[in-house]
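Worked example (supplementary).
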Amino acid sequence: MQHTIARIKSVYPLSEDRLQQFTGMLEAVELKKGHLLFREGKTCRDLYFLEKGIARAYCSTGDSHLTFWFGTEGDFLMSFNGYVNNSAGYETIELLEDALLYKVPVAELEHLYQTDLQFANWGRKLTEKELIQTEERFISRQFKTATERYKALMEEAPGLLRRVQLGYIASYLGITQVTLSRIRAELK
Amino acid sequence: MQHTIARIKSVYPLSEDRLQQFTGMLEAVELKKGHLLFREGKTCRDLYFLEKGIARAYCSTGDSHLTFWFGTEGDFLMSFNGYVNNSAGYETIELLEDALLYKVPVAELEHLYQTDLQFANWGRKLTEKELIQTEERFISRQFKTATERYKALMEEAPGLLRRVQLGYIASYLGITQVTLSRIRAELK
DNA sequence: CCTAAAATTTTACAAATGATAAAAATTATT
DNA sequence: AATAATTTTTATCATTTGTAAAATTTTAGG
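After joint prediction of all chains, the assembly is encoded as:
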């Protein structure tokens, strides 16, 4: 449970009993590669921490899938848009390796938020950090060329390139797999 | 103060005295078109509500500016990245019209977050809503062609196109002004 | 109303990326 | 190890978008 606990702690300092309380609510789930944790159009009100494994989130566009997020050990997965809009999410989350996750219903978290100041601030900080990550990715998308984005990804997350097939990486970078191949050939 | 109050209320329900307390902390500021509220590289720890006027946020890329956000009546402005990372922000915010704003130091807000459950949850919801907006824009950027994005903007924010010059709109859409002109010519 | 400045559109050409198909390389399965 | 399935690369051509410069339109100030 180390990655999950480290993540929870890193978000915002919780007292020891609150940390106990939180981890006590978590249910371990083992799932196989290929499993879909969320499905677009379906409601899912659970938050997962990814203790082991790797996952991607994608949206469907007519024929193809568009990967817009990767998560690895210590990351958490939830449908923010489904939760905030109280609707079905627009993303599907697929496990790309056999995985160990810890699960908690968002309703239970919400209850903590409504009743406990520390948890409410924990939830705020969780969202704030997620927000600036998304914002930074958004801006880097606008700023940088495809080649620069690929280089940056290699530096920031070299493990990703080893664990995830290039078609998904290309989609994540906003280019076709053919273009990514060209970029890789150029960089050799 | 109507837009500002409406915005505060829409984020998360606050009791009447908390609303009073909040609005009592706000300081009215009138500023001229062209004024820079935030400057990239500088620290600014204020939150502003835009009561009247229109603003854009941009980053510098070598020679040119990249507009990545517009705000109008009822929107709020702050440097989330500067605040969360406790660093200087990477964005500049420029007023595109003479404006009336209400200002509050983030430190005062933070104090409310740390001491009051309702405010802590208000801050959480504020961030959650901002997050899904950013996420949706990020995905729509990847999904849609430049033409589709322009059409969507025309529908969602027709006022923007009347109030903001096209060079900024083009940048916001992630294309050059020439490309935007071509798109507009096609749509005629 | 006139002029100067700024913003927008148009044009011509160059560069980047996409689409498609096929070949090569890698991985999984028997 | 051999075969099949999947993934990645390569090649070709079409399309989109960018760059630069000029022409036009709009805006702001006197």
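Two points are worth noting when inspecting this output. The domain at 2-116 of chain B is CATH 2.60.120.10 (Jelly Rolls). Residues 43 and 86 of chain B are 9 Å apart (CA to CA).
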